[in-house]
Amino acid sequence: MIRLDKFLCETVGVTRKQAAKVLKEERVTVDGEVIKNGAIKIAEDADVEFDGMSLSLSGPRYYMMNKPEGYVCSHDDPYNPTVFVLLDEIGAEKLHIAGRLDCDTTGLLLLTDDGQWSHRVTSPKHKCDKTYRVWLDDAVEEGVAATFAEGIKLRGEKTETLPAQMEQLDEKEVLLTIHEGKYHQVKRMFAAVGNKVVGLHRESIGDLILDEELEPGEYRELTKEEIALFLPK
């Protein structure tokens, strides 16, 4: 059993004082009945609704989003909208991003409140592949794929990148798979060979591929099978 006000604090992310306020405003129901007393104790699996939205302490949450251009991967930014405004979820402020994307980069974004799981996605020691579709300002020169496959020294770095695989799709379009996550890595890799990235879209992380049915800005929960891709075998 758990106090109703504590339940609200943990699921909605409000303070105890704010919980008392929403209860007084009759915005909370338990098993279909409006409850105004935060001191009552309820079962953790009780049917609790806040403004008509169901609340649950069911455990970690995992989402896949098709990140649109122009949104930043942070909870707060003075200049640009954040990806979190695209989430219609209670307690969205408790979620964090497993592998950020730049404001002008689109594609597969993972959001969760499971820190151990996101560590397995982002930690360099797990060498989790990330594949990007890259559009370039100039045609790709001969030998670039071989250079990336050997590892390339980026400006300001002491060591070369891990070997990366490049598949050329068109004169100015490639798929690039990297195995680490250095700051602005893809853009810096092409800058190092005298080219400029003009468009960048992440298609996959490990064996998890962006759902092609998700339009830019849309998201969905991960399936159990998708979550398990980043769990210890």
TrEMBL record:
<dbReference type="GO" id="GO:0005829">
    <property type="term" value="C:cytosol"/>
</dbReference>
<dbReference type="Pfam" id="PF00849">
    <property type="entry name" value="PseudoU_synth_2"/>
</dbReference>
<dbReference type="InterPro" id="IPR006145">
    <property type="entry name" value="PsdUridine_synth_RsuA/RluA"/>
</dbReference>
<dbReference type="InterPro" id="IPR036986">
    <property type="entry name" value="S4_RNA-bd_sf"/>
</dbReference>
<dbReference type="InterPro" id="IPR000748">
    <property type="entry name" value="PsdUridine_synth_RsuA/RluB/E/F"/>
</dbReference>
<keyword id="KW-0413">Isomerase</keyword>
<dbReference type="InterPro" id="IPR020094">
    <property type="entry name" value="TruA/RsuA/RluB/E/F_N"/>
</dbReference>
<dbReference type="Pfam" id="PF01479">
    <property type="entry name" value="S4"/>
</dbReference>
<dbReference type="InterPro" id="IPR002942">
    <property type="entry name" value="S4_RNA-bd"/>
</dbReference>
<comment type="similarity">
    <text>Belongs to the pseudouridine synthase RsuA family.</text>
</comment>
<dbReference type="GO" id="GO:0000455">
    <property type="term" value="P:enzyme-directed rRNA pseudouridine synthesis"/>
</dbReference>
<comment type="function">
    <text>Responsible for synthesis of pseudouridine from uracil-516 in 16S ribosomal RNA.</text>
</comment>
<feature type="domain" description="Pseudouridine synthase RsuA/RluA-like">
    <location>
        <begin position="62"/>
        <end position="192"/>
    </location>
</feature>
<dbReference type="GO" id="GO:0160136">
    <property type="term" value="F:16S rRNA pseudouridine(516) synthase activity"/>
</dbReference>
<dbReference type="InterPro" id="IPR020103">
    <property type="entry name" value="PsdUridine_synth_cat_dom_sf"/>
</dbReference>
<dbReference type="InterPro" id="IPR050343">
    <property type="entry name" value="RsuA_PseudoU_synthase"/>
</dbReference>
<feature type="domain" description="RNA-binding S4">
    <location>
        <begin position="3"/>
        <end position="40"/>
    </location>
</feature>
<keyword id="KW-0698">rRNA processing</keyword>
<dbReference type="GO" id="GO:0003723">
    <property type="term" value="F:RNA binding"/>
</dbReference>
<dbReference type="InterPro" id="IPR042092">
    <property type="entry name" value="PsdUridine_s_RsuA/RluB/E/F_cat"/>
</dbReference>
<dbReference type="InterPro" id="IPR018496">
    <property type="entry name" value="PsdUridine_synth_RsuA/RluB_CS"/>
</dbReference>
<protein>
    <recommendedName>
        <fullName>Pseudouridine synthase</fullName>
        <ecNumber>5.4.99.-</ecNumber>
    </recommendedName>
</protein>
<keyword id="KW-0694">RNA-binding</keyword>
